[in-house]
Amino acid sequence: AAVSEPAQKCCTENIQPFLTSILEELMGPVSSAFTEVRSLFDKEVNEIIQDFQKTNDITKLKENVDQLMNLPFNSVKMEPCYLKVNLLQELLQDLKSRFKVYHIDFVIQRTQNFMQELMENAVYTFEQLFSPSRQADSAKVATTIEKVKLRVLK
């Protein structure tokens, strides 16, 4: 009871007025990073489509889809996504001094974990939606892949 009122007053006067601007500032790099994840998924699936259209090889298609399933764990391909969120390091340094925000690395790491999880979900959903269509007419496979990709990106 003795701490509640001063703490409430401190939050109301010193933190709450800045929350909106802080969230807007932080959402720039976070949003950019998640957009990069989306773009990477889109690019990888487009490469699968193009490769299949050139070769019309179902075995190669299966290999490519299997490789896509490993995308979230491919640190080289995911690195550009992770770099986008590293901009938080600079933004959070300012917050650290103004609001005593600690564990900046934890915030960045958790954001990167969410990015990896998002990619895992995207490739898993792609595989689940596309799997029944693998046996379809090879002329329709590229179109099916495109439709599944668009569905996942939605």
TrEMBL record:
<comment type="similarity">
    <text>Belongs to the Niban family.</text>
</comment>
<dbReference type="Pfam" id="PF26086">
    <property type="entry name" value="Niban2"/>
</dbReference>
<dbReference type="InterPro" id="IPR026088">
    <property type="entry name" value="Niban-like"/>
</dbReference>
<feature type="domain" description="Niban 1/2/3">
    <location>
        <begin position="9"/>
        <end position="154"/>
    </location>
</feature>
<dbReference type="InterPro" id="IPR059060">
    <property type="entry name" value="Niban_1/2/3_dom"/>
</dbReference>
<protein>
    <submittedName>
        <fullName>NIBAN protein</fullName>
    </submittedName>
</protein>
